[in-house]
Each structure stands twice: as C-alpha cells, then as structure tokens.
Design goal:
The chain is α/β, with parallel strands linked by helices. Strand 3, helix 3 and strand 4 form a beta-alpha-beta unit. The longest helix has 18 residues. The radius of gyration is 18 Å and the shape is globular. It binds zinc ion (2 copies). One zinc ion (ZN) binds next to loops.
C-alpha cells in the first residue's frame, strides 16, 4: 500500500529538523503517495502566554506567507512525483479561538485541511503546555491528580468539537495526555468522557488522526489507544494516519504495522483531503 502521511513539521516551528524540501525528498524516496505539510500555526497573538516558552513552538506570523509560498513552489516542482498538501496544526485555546480565526481566515483559500489539537490547558500560572517535556511536572501545581488533567483535557476537547466557530477537519493525537506515561487512576470514568468526545466527533462529521508519534515518546504507542480505536470503529468515524514527523526520516513511521492492526480491527478505508474536501481511499 502507498502511504499518505497527514501530519509533519519542519524547521520553521523551531523544534523540528530539516526544511520542507528535505521532508518531500525523503517522502519521494520512500514512495509515499501524499505528504501533508502541517506545521504549527503561530502562538504569538494569544494572551496569557508569558509563562510558556511558546517561541520554540511554532513559526511566527511574518513567516506564514513564506511557508505557504514555499509549499506552493514545491508542489509545482515535485508535481509528477508526490501529492503535497498544505495545512496547519492549530490549537484550541479556551476563549481565544476568535483571535486564531481572524488570522486563519486570511490564508483559508490556500489550505487543504487543518489539524485541530489541544496542547494547552489552563493552570494556576495562566496556561500550561501538557506535552512540553520542560513542563512535564507542572500539572502537579494546578491539578490534584492526573485524572483531573484528563477531565479538563476531554472537557476542552468537547468544547473544541462543539464550537462550530472553530473550523478544522481532523482531530489530532486524541489522547495526548498519556505522552509521559501518565495514565488515569479511574480509567472507567475517563473512558466515559472519551466516548462523549467520540460521539461529538461523529455528530460533527470530523476525521480522527491515528498518530504514530507516540511510539517515539515515553508512552511507546500510537495516539489514541487501541481501546479508543475500537470505539472509533464501532461509531464508524473516518480515520487517517499521521506520523507527527519532526525529522524527515520519521515520515510514515510505523505505518505498515499500524495499518495491519487497523485492518484486523475492520477498517477498510482511510480519509484523504484536498482543498477542504474529504474523500476516501481503500486500505489494501
Ligand atoms: Zn511540534
Ligand atoms: Zn500536536
């Protein structure tokens, strides 16, 4: 099967290696069919961000035009070799999505899709990045337990999904909270929350990303867990694959293995995006 990888970064965000063209060339070498360039959208216009090292999280607003131009040029240059898609990974930050919308609106006609993520939750110090290794222990200051973090995370997911003013296509790394091997003490209660999240995703007709980035983190498994993937299958929610590559050679990482398992579960198709429109390709 020819792979499609819908979640990749590059050096513009400040914490990934290699320029966009390095990723494209590696993908061509690997025989990848479609590569989504989906770097982190800027954070600098948000408020309450003073306490988090967001400068290393994303490109700046002045770089956005350059990012889009570069992708356009490379689409042309490599058009006979690979499908390239233009995207951003955007964050849902409570009460601040209007600021983001205002910026995204300007570039909307250039985009093939948007990945919607939650990396940032409220804390005593303002805001806190749940997956930043530097802030890994921070949750203990603002939350009484890891379950509280999970509750807050999934509550925010539901808010993001039901907020029709927050436009995006794909829910990324759905159970990211587990990244550092933090698991809930009451998994049953948390799973009930997850089911609510999935029902909301189903209602809004979004796609869920199966993200293999987790294999390279402490948790050593994909996001989301197989328990959640089983529910996704039951609810018949579309999925696609993302490696979350922060280095060119992480493209399509573990795709062969994960596809085998997805097929065993029963999935027969993966979602595909172009100019905001979703279609499907068969898994074979
Ligand atoms: Zn990143
Ligand atoms: Zn992410």
């Amino acid at each position: 099967m020819k792979f499609e990888d819908w979640h990749t970064h590059n050096s513009m965000c400040g914490h990934a290696e290699g320029i966009i063209e390095d990723y494209i060339q590696y993908a061509i070498k690997m025989g990848i069919e479609t590569l989504g360039i989906s770097d982190h959208f800027p954070y600098e216009f948000y408020s309450n961000f003073e306490k988090i090292p967001y400068q290393g999280y994303a490109m700046t607003m002045v770089q956005v035009e350059k990012y889009l131009e570069t992708i356009d040029d490379l689409k042309m240059k490599y058009r006979d070799k690979i499908n390239i898609r233009t995207a951003f990974e955007i964050d849902y930050i409570q009460n601040q999505y209007i600021k983001l919308n205002k910026h995204i609106e300007k570039f909307k006609n250039k985009l093939d899709y948007l990945l919607g993520s939650i990396h940032i939750l409220p804390s005593m110090k303002g805001l806190w990045t749940i997956d930043d290794p530097l802030l890994k222990e921070e949750y203990k200051i603002s939350y009484n337990s890891i379950d509280e973090v999970y509750e807050q995370y999934y509550k925010t997911q539901i808010e993001m999904i039901s907020n029709l003013e927050f436009n995006y296509n794909i829910v990324s790394h759905l159970d990211l909270v587990k990244k550092f091997n933090y698991f809930p003490e009451n998994p049953k209660i948390i799973m009930e929350k997850v089911i609510q999240v999935l029902e909301n995703i189903k209602n809004r007709n979004l796609t869920i990303e199966i993200n293999t980035g987790g294999f390279r983190k402490e948790v050593k498994e994909q996001y989301p867990s197989f328990e959640i993937i089983d529910k996704i299958y039951e609810l018949d929610i579309p999925i696609l694959l993302g490696s979350d590559a922060h280095k060119p050679d992480e493209i399509a990482h573990m795709f062969e293995e994960i596809l085998k398992t997805l097929k065993k579960i029963g999935f027969s198709q993966l979602a595909h995006y172009e100019k905001g429109k979703r279609s499907f390709v068969d898994i074979n």
